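Input chain follows. Return structure tokens only.
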Amino acid sequence: MSKNDWMDLFQFDMFLQACVVYDSFNQICVKYPINVIDSNEGIPHDIPKEYLCPLSKSIMKNPVIASNGITYDQSSIINQYQNIPNYSSLMNNGNLVLYPDFALKQKIQQFLKNLK
């Protein structure tokens, strides 16, 4: 093998290692999102717990009630439901069952409006 062949293999190996690091980092970011409430400047720490999504730990924009009775932010539960133990209980005929929580959404919107 020539020097160029070895360099090509080395660069490909480095690329594969970079992909593994990226994938690992991405999995960590999904499991431990950086947009948790403590990192948001200007948002008080006395936010009612019911306004926070148990998955993202952020204020819910579109709260929905899953069939397990727990309220989640819609985007969080859609993207992360498979991380919930016994997530099959959230399914009906292969579909994720979610119900809008209009009352909570209105409370959250009022809370955020009062912050301004």
